[in-house]
Amino acid sequence: MAIKRTKAEKKIAYDKKLCSLLDEYSKVLIAAADNVGSKQLQEIRKGLRGDSIVLMGKNTLIRRCIKVHAEKTGNKDYLELSNLLIGNVGLIFTKGDLKEVREEVAKYKVGAPARVGLVAPVDVVVPPGNTGLDPSQTSFFQVLNIPTKINKGTVEIITPVELIKKGDKVGSSESALLAKLGIRPFSYGLVINNVYDSGSVFSPEVLDLTEEDLMNKFASGVSMVASLSLAISYPTMAAAPHMFLNAYKNVLAIAVETDYSYPHADKIKEYLKDPSKFAVAAPAAAAASGGAAAAPKEEEKKDEPAEESDEEMGFSLFDD
Q: What is the pTM of this model?
């Protein structure tokens, strides 16, 4: 016969377990567990077995354990978790990839009926079609203003109807109708609200960022730094190429307007004195680049044998 532990003993055991997890893991997912049943939670634990552990408990108890652990070890990073323990939440300690763990948790969503008094998490739309109900059940549809017709001895919904809007409470009539139609409009599971990683707390949307997104954001940031540096004439690595280019343009402008010169400026001065040289140089450069591509085509034409005409063969269409 198993010995039943007291509440104090359970709290001590829970405290030891949580402290050991805080020492072992550096990544935690904070998940909301509203309307999640014990069987569903057991399936999630099985799916994450190996590199992740799901821990549920009272928020006050978890906060106390985190505070005691921080005082004992001096590691105050986990104190950030205390502010995130709001509502019915659980902690998923993991050593695996955070994105993969979140995707694995999302697989274990279970459909649920619309019970009376529940707040709808999504819009509920009843699709058109045959309901399979006999004509005596039309009273449900009339109460909810759903257009129907009798077809082959059964009730048929004519048009799609938005039965419940997101955020509204489910009424008794809506719940009864959805139950008769066999519709389970809601699905519940663990929903990741926040992510903790080595002292940093961020939104789970960050896990969806790809390398391309990061590169684009980095490029945008470098562009803003370069623009600000150029505006206030403050040298930075991002603005250095632009500053050198602007400085070269200034030197070239001075050389053009004065007697001072250097090899590159001499070419510009020649073009300014005689613009026709520039007009000749541009087509010549284009011809040089295009000539290499045109040469193989000419060789192909030379390789093709000339077709012999009828006159060369000594025949004519009008010969007898």
A: 0.60
